[in-house]
Specification:
Layout lengths: L6 E10 L4 E11 L4 E5 L6 H9 L6 E6 L2 E5 L6 E2 L1 H4 L2 E4 L11 H13 L3 H14 L15 H13 L5 E5 L7 H16 L4 E4 L3 H7 L2 E6 L2 E6 L1 H6 L4 H13 L2
Parallel strand pairs: 3-9, 3-10, 7-8, 8-9
Antiparallel strand pairs: 1-2, 1-4, 4-5, 5-6, 10-11
Helix pairs in contact: 3-4, 3-5, 5-6
Length: about 260
């Protein structure tokens, strides 16, 4: 029996400037619960916009996104309909950390569960300390973001997203702002999440990371999915000239 799509995207359209700048052009995508889906492609190809649309951060002008077979987002020229309950089941981590500078690490982790879920403070703090301990950050619980390294900030941002027990994690270029020696801290944390069975969709230019963690690779170009393959297939024998050129350019840029 074929495994049902966990995330189903059909005909997704996204544009800016009153339709003058088209970013997603009827994009179709299916993701299974067992997938660690890597989204790669040239700048402006639509990959980060796709993640933001799946997170419900962008209005979309057309198409539909389903989660577990249920309608989550329906696009329209005048209005985007979104199911807020489903949205709360998705976590997203950004390149820029987005931590609150006036809150401690513990405060950053507990704010959303207490405010949006009504979790008791002591329960939220116990859950937060478990996560911080799991990811080697327990000693930083009372520190403020300004006192953390870039790798520590990004690990805190991931732990904060996990506080709401998401069913899907989205990562948008989470290692690109880090110094090379700090990248491995974040990759180790994401790899641990992947090994625990967390479905994830990842945008990255780090090809080593891509090969290490992905179960599927999709190449996003021109606002559509141009290729969809296993990492082995994609990196050894991409089908299109555009994908071959992209891989060649990225690998040479990393040297």
């Amino acid at each position: 029996m074929t495994e049902q799509s966990f995330i189903s995207v059909r005909g997704l359209k996204k544009s800016y400037a009153n339709g003058q700048i088209k970013v997603l052009n009827g994009l179709d995508l299916d993701m299974k619960k067992t997938d660690r889906l890597l989204v790669i492609g040239p700048s402006g190809g639509g990959k980060s916009t796709l993640l933001r649309c799946v997170m419900g951060l962008e209005d979309v002008q057309g198409g539909e996104i389903k989660v577990d077979g249920k309608s989550y987002i329906i696009g329209g020229e005048r209005k985007t309909n979104i199911d807020p309950e489903m949205q709360r089941q998705i976590g997203m981590v950004f390149q820029s950390y987005t931590l609150f500078p006036h809150l401690t690490v513990l405060g950053n982790l507990t704010l959303a569960p207490i405010r949006s879920r009504g979790v008791r403070k002591d329960e939220a703090e116990a859950r937060a300390m478990d996560l911080l301990n799991r990811f080697g950050l327990k000693a930083k619980a009372r520190a403020y973001p300004a006192a953390l390294s870039g790798g520590q900030k990004q690990r805190v941002a991931i732990a904060r997203a996990l506080m709401l027990d998401p069913k899907l994690m989205l990562f948008d270029e989470v290692t690109s702002a880090l110094d090379p020696e700090l990248v491995n801290e974040v990759i180790t944390m994401i790899t641990e999440l992947a090994d625990s069975g967390m479905p994830m969709m990842i945008v990255t230019h780090d090809m080593w990371f891509a090969k290490k963690i992905a179960t599927r690779v999709v190449f996003c170009d021109g606002g559509v999915i141009a290729e969809d393959a296993t990492p082995e297939e994609f990196f050894s024998a991409p089908k299109s000239v555009r994908a071959r050129d992209f891989i060649h350019n990225v690998l040479h840029a990393d040297r």
